[in-house]
Amino acid sequence: MASPRPNAFGDLHRDTLDFLSSLSGLAYGRLQAEAANARRSRFTEAAAIAGERLLAASDWRQTMHAALGMLGSALDAATLAAVQVVPADDASAAHEEYAWQPYFGEPWMRGDELARPSAEARAQLSRGDAWQFVAGPDRAPLLAKPILDDGALWGVLAIELPSGRWSLPDRDERLALRAFSNSVAGAIARERLDATLRTRQRMEAVGSLAAGIAHDFNNLLWPIILYSEMLERSFPGDQRALAMLRDMQQAARRASELVQQVLAISRHRDRSLELVGLPDIVADVAHLLRRAAPPGIAVQAEIDADAGRVLGDPAELEQVVVALGTRAIAGQGLARSQVRVILDRVDRFGGRWMRICVCDDGPELDPAARARFFDAADGAADPDGVAARLAHARRVVAEHAGRIEVRLDDDGHNLVELLLPLDAVDFDARTAVQPMAPAPTPNATDDARPGERILLVDDDPAVLEVARTMLETIGYAVVACSGGAIALDRLRDGAERFDLILTDLTMPGMTGIELTIAAKGIRPSIPVVCCTGYGDERIERRAYEAGMSAFVRKPIDFERLSSTIRRAIDGVARG
C-alpha cells in the first residue's frame, strides 16, 4: 500500500497489512508442506515399486540402475548408488558398484570411498545404523544406509543431494531408503539361495546319472566276470589261459569297485548312527582321489588300521573326507605336488580323538583365506560346488561333536585337521551294535538240488542270457522272462513249479519290488532274490518290506550268487 500523504495510514491499515502478511506466510508454509508431503509420497511409492521390481527380476543386477533412477528422481538426488563393501583385510579386492545421476557430467568418484570405509564406519554399518560421510566443506554430505545380507554387511545404499539442498532426507524418506536397502538384501539372498539350489540340483542330476551309468556298466561287467569264471573252470591245465582269465576278472572287479565308490558318494542315504570304521572309508576315498587327481598330483594315504571306530553317519563322514580331499587337489594348480591323507588316533583336550588330516604342498593359504576356508560361495564363484561341500563338511563335523581346523604344519604346508571324539562312544553303544555277519563260504552244498527251478526276470537280453547260463551251470532249471508281466503269467498258469524268483530291480512297466508284491499274492511262500546294478538303503528297506529274501548288487561273482540263492531257497534268514 502506498500514498503521497503523510499519516495516510492508521492503525486499521497496519492491522490489515499484518493480517495479510500472516495469511501469506501461512499459505506459503502450507504450500511448502503440501509439496514436501507430495515428494515424500512419491518417494515412498517409488521405493516400494523399485523394491518390488528388484525382487521380481530374474537378475537383480540388470534392474538395479532402473530402480536407483526411479528413487533418485523421486527424491531429487544428485547421486544415488549401491556399493559393495569389500573385506577389511583385502585391500585389492574388486567391488560391485551401481550409481545413478540425473544428468551427464563428471563421473561419480566416491564409490571406492564407500567400498572401503573406516573401521568406525564399518562397525556402525554392520550394526544396521546409517553413516554420514562428509568429504569436505565444499562437498554435500553423503548418507549411507547399510545393506545387510543374512546379518552380514554386503554394502551400502548411498544418497548425495544437490549442492543447493544440503538437508539430508527426513525420517519418512530414511524409512523408505531402509525398505529399499532391505529389498536389495533380499534380492542378494535369493540369488545365493538360487545358486545353492542349482548346485544341489546339479549334484542330484549327477547322482541320478551315476546311478544309471552304474546300472548299465554293471550289466556289462557281469557277463565278463561270470563267463571268465566259467571259462576258468574249463581250462584247469592251461596256466597261461588261467592267468589271463584271472587278470580279466581282477580288472572287471576293480572297475566295479570304482563305480560303487562313485555311486556311494552320489546316492542319497538316510541318516543313521552306527559305529563307523574310518580306516576303510579313508582308504576308499584315498583310492578314489588318486584316480581322480590330474597328472602330476600324487595322493598318499597314511592310515592307522587300529585307529578304532567312531559313532556317526558313515555316508556323511565319507562326504567330509571327499570334500577335504577334493579341495586339496583343486588348490594344487598344474605343478607337481602331493596331497597326503592321514588317519590316526591322538590324545587332545583331555580326551581321545580320531584324527583325519589332509595336507597339501600347494600355494600357502594366508590367515584370511584360512578363516574363509569353509565359507560357502555363490554359484558364480563356486561352479564346481567345492565351497558348498566344505561348508556342509563343517556342519557335519559339528553335528558329530568334532573339531576342525585349518592351519600350516611345521613344514609350512596347508593342513586341514579333523578331530572326531572316540570318548563319545560309550560301552552301551559299542555293545548295542552287532558286527555284520560274515559272507557265506561257498561249498558244495550251494549247488542246485535235483528238480529245482528258477524263474529268471530281466529286461536286458545280455544279462538274461548270462544269468541263465550261470544258473544252468549250477544245476538249476531256468525259465527266463523279459518282463514282470510275463513272469506273473507263468506263475498264474500253475502248470510249472518254481523254487525261487531271481529278478532285476529296475525294469520298464514293472519294477522288481512290484513284481515281488504281485508274486507273493499268487504264491506267498516263494522266495524272491533281487539282483541289481544300483540301489540304496531306502530301496533295500522297501524291497525287504515287500517280501524279498535277499538283495544283491551286480556284478556279483559266481560263488556268492550261488550261495545267496541256496540260502534263499532253504529259508535261511537274511543278515
CATH topology of the largest domain: Beta-Lactamase
Largest sheet: 5 strands, antiparallel
Give the C-level CATH assignment of the largest domain.
Alpha Beta
The domain count comes to 3
Specify the overall morphology: elongated
Structural class by SSE content: alpha/beta
> What is the fourth-level CATH superfamily of the largest domain?
GAF domain
- Please give the CATH architecture of the largest domain: 2-Layer Sandwich
**Overall residue-averaged pLDDT value:** 78
Helix content: 40-55%
Number of strands: 17
Taking strands numbered 1, 2, ... along the chain, how are they ordered across the largest sheet?
2-1-5-4-3
Tally of contiguous helical segments: 16
For this structure, the quaternary state is single chain
* Alpha-carbon distance between the two ends: 113 Å
Radius of gyration: 37 Å
**Could you list the spans in which at least 5 consecutive residues all have pLDDT below 50?**
424-444
Q: What is the strand content?
A: 15-25%
